[in-house]
């Protein structure tokens, strides 16, 4: 009997060792892949010519697409790739990766994104590619987009909201537009029962009592704009943007913060615009 118990213990130890070796091997493979991606990411940002940058982003995209198909990457930090934004939902079902490429010649930007969506019921992971589609400024705030018509942004924060239909994920994003203007976006991300992605929802009521699917801000590339979620106030707050002079109205390259603040506060399923917020303290 003692011999049998000993054999069980030895077998368990061997199994644990094999599992530990397997995890170590996977981590080592991911570390090697991360080093390559870091070199490519640096070339995308600091490449001396557009040819170098385009070649780097093409290889980076291909490697990221292949790598993120592996379930082990869902929990891997990728901390050394500073130009890669990584956001995760609190339920550990969704992870969002975004990054960009800027042309050295004309200063324009292209955006890339991938979403990992884990289904615990089926114990499987789906990888969703986000395809950027340039949209007209006059209509971008008024439509729902999907993974094939993504606006394109680098997301820097994610806020979750429980609603009757499930969860809405609010994304705060930065968008380098060109050499003259920068944009920021307050975006809504949802998933349907089949885990298909939708961007935008008619949940924002602006200062004119008009419904919007998202809020897009555009301002001079020389300025820095505040856009964040204030947990204590339970609202999104942002700089109010104004033109440098009345004659520049509508020319966003001359817009910037005017030291006043506005926001959106949640009430009965919608976010209502609030102006002239007191942001002291």
Describe this structure in words.
22% of the residues lie in helices and 39% in strands. It is α+β, with helices and mostly antiparallel strands. The strands form three sheets. Strands 5, 6, 7, 8, 9 and 12 form a six-stranded antiparallel β-sheet that branches. The protein has a six-stranded mixed β-sheet with strand order 11-10-16-15-14-13, with no helix packed on it. The longest helix has 45 residues. The protein is globular. The N terminus is likely disordered.
Radius of gyration: 23 Å
How much helix is in the residues? 10-25%
| Low-pLDDT windows of residues | 2-21
Q: How many H/I helices? A: 2
Largest sheet: 6 strands, antiparallel
Approximate strand percentage: 35-45%
Helix-strand sequence: HHEEEEEEEEEEEEEEEE
Distance between the termini: 71 Å
Large-scale geometry: globular
SSE arrangement:
Blueprint: H1 2-46, H2 50-67, E1 85-88, E2 94-102, E3 109-119, E4 124-130, E5 145-146, E6 154-163, E7 166-176, E8 181-191, E9 197-199, E10 204-205, E11 211-212, E12 215-220, E13 227-230, E14 235-243, E15 255-267, E16 270-274
Parallel strand pairs: 10-16
Antiparallel strand pairs: 1-2, 2-3, 3-4, 5-9, 6-7, 7-8, 8-9, 8-12, 10-11, 13-14, 14-15, 15-16
Label this structure with key terms.
globular; 281 residues; 22% helix; disordered N terminus; alpha+beta; six-stranded antiparallel β-sheet
In short:
The chain has 281 residues and is of the alpha+beta class.
